[in-house]
């Protein structure tokens, strides 16, 4: 029996009729760009997160890019972020002519270590991008305090954390902007690319609305140089339906994670740590072990798919060699890159599948531990 890392079709089958009906209605109406479906979804997300403005954009990557641009990041600026994240976090900084400055992670939560931020701040530092990795928020009190002291903007990368909470506040609503992705594998995903920026600041919201249509308030009158970055109406229609299920899906993910925790508690596998005051949504369920690569191979042989997020932290990527980081500069990120393994987790994963995975892990660690 094969157990995939994620079963997107399984989720689709549950809501197939509803989606097909809504998509057919959308196609019949004939109005495909921005318009009502996008506005409805923007308002629904803003309401769900208790934020003032939602602005739909083409992807999570663009949500970061347009956010950074809107808060004033540009050529020569420095932006502090985590090296242990998806590439888009840093790529968006580079695309604006700014420089990513990488700060090591807290090995327990895999999120940026707030105590290491201050020493990296220079006169060029303009913003911080906290990445709420795997579905758990960063230490936002600490980040907001540093940002306030040094007058820095905060752009939250909440692409993996829609619905996650920190002290009762939703991920993405605590900084100047919050960025979300609706890539198919995210907890709220469409059947293609999509993204959203959340902000409580009306000026930033207006600027982002311009930036996504080539910098024009009125068509063909360009105030600034912007981008083509709209959320497609088609995706908004689909996401409007899926949003109703999000809390339930996140709740079931938490249940699955707790079940994994219980079954793996007596092994020496490192389990996810949930920091105080956090509601984790388990975009990924990530374990750690020194024998990661062998364990992964063993699981693969038993038909269980896993993934490594992320094998090479960003400061050691080829494209960032010019920044001068060397091995061992950011040791917690590098160690996480060697030791972590993401297991299948999604609402449709059955308990018996989960038990099979745990059984395979237990056999797997014994097998790899006894290697010569
Ligand atoms: C998915 C993701 C992004 C980018 O989102 P896209 O919609 O794929 O462009 C950015 N940051 C993080 C942490 C992500 O997981």
Describe what you observe in this structure:
It is a single chain. With 372 residues, the chain is an alpha/beta fold. It contains eleven helices and 14 strands. It has a seven-stranded mixed sheet with strand order 1-9-8-5-4-2-3, with helices on both faces. It has a three-stranded antiparallel sheet with strand order 7-6-12, with no helix packed on it. It has a two-stranded antiparallel sheet with strand order 10-11. Helix 5 links the parallel strand 4 (125-129) and strand 5. Helix 1 crosses helix 7, helix 3 packs across helix 6 (202-211) and helix 8 packs parallel to helix 11. It is globular. The two termini are 30 Å apart. 44% of the residues are buried. The mean pLDDT is 96. The site of pyridoxal-5'-phosphate (PLP) has 15 residues, from helix 3 and helix 4.
């Amino acid at each position: 029996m094969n157990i995939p890392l994620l079963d997107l079709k399984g989720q689709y089958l549950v809501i197939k009729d509803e989606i097909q009906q809504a998509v057919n209605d959308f196609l019949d109406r004939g109005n495909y760009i921005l318009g009502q479906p996008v506005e409805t979804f923007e308002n629904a997300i803003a309401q769900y997160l208790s934020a003032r403005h939602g602005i739909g954009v083409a992807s999570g990557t663009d949500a970061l890019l347009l956010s950074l641009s809107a808060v004033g990041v540009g050529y020569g600026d420095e932006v502090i972020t985590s090296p242990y994240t998806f590439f888009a976090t840093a790529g968006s900084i580079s695309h604006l002519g700014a420089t990513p400055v990488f700060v090591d992670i807290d090995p327990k939560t895999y999120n940026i270590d707030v105590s290491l931020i201050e020493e990296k701040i220079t006169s060029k530092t303009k913003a911080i991008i906290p990445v709420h990795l795997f579905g758990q928020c960063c230490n936002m009190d600490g980040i907001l305090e540093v940002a306030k002291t040094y007058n820095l903007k905060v752009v939250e990368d909440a692409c993996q954390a829609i619905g996650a909470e920190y002290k009762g506040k939703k991920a993405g609503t605590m900084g100047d902007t919050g960025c979300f992705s609706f890539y198919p594998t995210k907890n709220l995903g469409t059947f293609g690319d999509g993204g959203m920026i959340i902000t409580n600041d009306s000026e930033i919201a207006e600027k982002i609305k311009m930036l996504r249509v080539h910098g024009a308030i009125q068509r063909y009158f360009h105030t600034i140089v912007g981008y083509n970055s709209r959320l497609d109406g088609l995706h908004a229609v689909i996401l409007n339906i899926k949003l109703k299920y999000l809390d339930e899906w996140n709740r079931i993910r938490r249940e699955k994670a707790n079940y994994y925790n219980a079954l793996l508690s007596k092994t020496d596998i490192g389990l996810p740590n949930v920091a105080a005051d956090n509601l984790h949504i388990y975009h990924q369920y990530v374990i750690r072990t020194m024998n990661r690569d062998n364990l992964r191979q063993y699981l693969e042989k038993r038909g269980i798919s896993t993934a490594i997020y992320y094998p090479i932290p960003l400061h050691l990527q080829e494209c960032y060699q010019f920044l001068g980081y060397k091995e061992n500069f950011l040791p917690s990120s590098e160690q996480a890159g060697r030791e972590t393994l993401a297991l299948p987790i999604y609402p449709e994963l059955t308990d018996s599948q989960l038990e099979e995975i745990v059984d395979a892990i237990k056999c797997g660690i014994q097998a790899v531990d006894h290697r010569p």
